[in-house]
Amino acid sequence: MHRLLVLYPKPADPDHFRDYYVTKHIPLVMNWPGLLACRYSFDVAATKGEAPYFAVFEADFADAAAMAVARSSPQGQRVSADVVNYATGGVVVIDYPVQDSIG
């Protein structure tokens, strides 16, 4: 499995971010081809001190090739272009293969 992780620093308008993200952005994400699962949270906490991120998003794909197809698809291009509509604090996007450590 391959995971896409998106970290969002605090936006200028947290209420707008939450509303737009849930009502407009996530529905776009749900149209990604090959998407196995996704999840997000606005309740980001740090073990010590203040968390450097306001929100987090994860998406799972069968492998890196499936994620690349999704991101380069017309749906993926719409998702990427939409980020400027809510993420005024910027965005950090990383991806990696997921290794099972239990079992």
UniProtKB/TrEMBL annotation:
Every EthD domain range: 11-88
Q: Which organism is it from?
A: Nocardia tengchongensis
Protein's recorded name: EthD family reductase
Family matches, as InterPro entries:
Dimeric_a/b-barrel (IPR011008), EthD_dom (IPR009799)
TM ranges = none
**Which residues, if any, are the signal sequence?**
none
Return the Pfam families for the record: EthD (PF07110)
